[in-house]
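[step 3/7] fold_predict: job queued, chain A
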Amino acid sequence: MYSRSITTFAGGVGGYSARDRALAAGLRIEHLLQAQPNAEPSSELRSQGVAILLGGQLAFYLREADVDSLAGETLEQRAQDAVRALELVRSDRSTLHDSRSMASAAAIVVGASLALALGLKLLWRLRRWVLRRLRHWMQPAVRLAGVVAGHRVRLLVRWLYRSLALALCHAWLSVVLYQIPYTWAWSGELNTALLAFVQRSLWAVLEALPNLLIALTIALAARYASRFIHYLFGRIERGELVLALFDRDTATTTRRLLSFAVWVFALAMAYPYLPGAQTEAFKGLSVMIGLMVSLGASSLVGQFASGLILIYSRALKVGEYVQIGGVEGTVAHIGLFSTKIHTNLREEINIPNSGLVGQNVKNYSRLVSGGGVITSVAVSIGYDTPWRQVEAMLLQAAAQTPGVRAEPAPKVYQTALADWYVEYQLRVAVDEPWRKSSILHLLHGQVQDVFNEYGVQIMSSHYIADPEQEKLVPPARRAPPPA
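[step 4/7] structure written:
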């Protein structure tokens, strides 16, 4: 009654259920309070049980069946609690029907509401003043260094403002509910619930503190181990330290893998000590994340394994000039999942490592220091031209081409004796493989000039018969406009 619980009936009596008993008791209490508003509650032991009286009149009976003996309750204790609850109900009813008390309660509610509005306004102004002072205190000389710290301080100020605002609203609600007889019990339950929440939170923090310290220790150990790995392999990458098992080419990847392994191992060790790690919700979330990773990472694992094979087999290095399939260019980046190639056309081509491992890779830079990169030019010349003359002309063209190495010396090979012509191949060495296309361009031009100079035709692969007039370019026409 009036939002208060007087007592609880646990069993029926004489065909009446516990619910019927509670309804009948409520009606009797309301009838007795209407007849005697100032009736004093009391209790009396009788043969039927303990009688709860209101102004000497029976309100209800409490029996042994209503007592929870397992919880340590007694019939006398339950009777005393019921008498105290009835006294509060009587007080609530008298206040509700007292105009002065209600006017006083309304005045208190209005005053509390005004105080809440004033408090929130003052808090808002205080928050704005503090934030302005923070911006003023951050001098330009230290603004860049303290931008992260300043942001955190502003977040802390906003959090404090919200916390204080919520505390004021809670105090206002508690006062307002306490002034209305129908909601007095809610006010007490509100405060009790808040205190219980704070108490449970504090106890949870205290209980979790040892495990949190262990998890923090593991995290700190992992952090310093990762720093040591970065320091050690950083020196190997810079060439300041030489270890038998590691080299500069694979130091970066090894550093990342070892650092990742350290943090995974630390997470596995710290997992049982995390708050809530043993709850079913946490376990279910872990299973769901593991399932998502296992379903979505099949191709990712293949790319990762291919990247490891590519890096540790040392098939490629950054800066080398290579040809992969139909792509030719300089290796710009070798990652665990893909490799980036920069071509001579200023294109960046990203090749997945799984596809790269399955293709033939031509590395033009790996053997440059031992004699350059060998490239070739093929021509077809008729049988009526002496092969010694052709060989001499091809070697002369190679000698006149910038970028062609003198050592190893250019060589000419007769690669085929076809039906109508002989196929010749001029092999030359170049020092700069990324300039291979431009050097071949110059070499092709020199070959045409030399053959024109000595009056020798370069035959086509579709040759059928000798033309009536030789297909040569005379010296006067070797550079017509706009050449």
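[step 5/7] annotate
The CA atoms of residues 414 and 424 lie 5 Å apart.
Confidence is low (pLDDT under 50) at residues 140-148.
exit 0
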